[in-house]
Amino acid sequence: VSEFVAQLVVTKVEAHPALCSDPAKALIDAFDSVDADLLKNQSIDAQLSGTTAVCSLFVYDAAADKTTIFTANAGDSRSVLAQQTPKGVKAVDLSEDQKPDTPAEQARIRKAGGYVSPPEEEWGGPARVWMDDRMQLPGLAMGRSIGDHLVKQVGVIATPEVKQHVIGDNDLYVVMASDGVWEFIESQPAINIVEKFMEKGATDACTKLIETAAAKWRQEEGDYRDDITAVVISFPWMPAQ
User: Fold this and answer.
1) How far is CA 108 from the centre of its chain?
2) What secondary structure does DSSP assign to 141-169, as a single string?
């Protein structure tokens, strides 16, 4: 599912007629369209399989000499901006995790007839979406996803939230990662890790973040870990004029 989505979202965003005039619409339509295509694909069973997705589109406005980041998110992946401040490098979230118990997500799911179980206090499990209060299927730990079509009938959607940020002089780089990174590392500690290694380059910094996340999983969960995917995007490539 994730490979299907990663390839097709990019293609659909690039081909969208409103890509330049309305980037947010291009991103939203791409996510929804890919989810619909996935449902029709007979070679992939996405009833109980799905993927979180976070996507950032950088749009340069030559007339205004500014670059805007449009960040689309469905699920619990996250995009975080590193921003230089007098007190050090600060983490600024460019997306919001859509957990099932986030008020807006929970309200939509309940209205559609779904059931949201609260986080497990005893063993630290997350809030989850179920078809009903018997909690038999599927126990999805996010309020939005591409795929997971069984719970689309109880309020889980693929439509992303899109947020905008105009890059300023103090903005340094963006860290985008899947929930396997954010499970045991919050936004600011992640930026702190990356910042220590940015002098060696974004690739080395990203590798260190992934290694740290993997070590956290080994410490907390032994042999089990969730997906760990990360990208670090530095800004020197931005137009200089």
Assistant:
1) 20
2) SSSB-EE-GGGGGGT-B-PPEEEEEE--T
pTM: 0.93
Q: Could you read off the pLDDT tens digit of each residue along the chain, which spans 241 residues?
A: 999 999 999 999 999 999 999 999 999 999 999 999 999 999 999 999 999 999 999 999 999 999 999 999 999 999 999 999 999 999 999 999 999 999 999 999 999 999 999 998 877 789 999 999 999 889 999 999 999 999 999 999 999 999 999 999 999 999 999 999 999 999 999 999 999 999 999 999 999 999 999 999 999 999 998 899 999 999 865 544 3
Coil, strand, or helix at residue 237?
coil
Per the CB < 8 A criterion, the answer to whether 146 and 50 are in contact is yes
The span from the CA of 60 to the CA of 46, in Å, is 36
Provide the residue count of the chain. Answer: 241
What are 58's strand-pairing partners? Answer: 69
CA angle 175, 59, 35 (to 5 degrees): 70
Q: Which two tokens stand for residue 182?
A: 């954010």
Q: How many other CB atoms sit within 10 Å of the CB of residue 232? A: 22
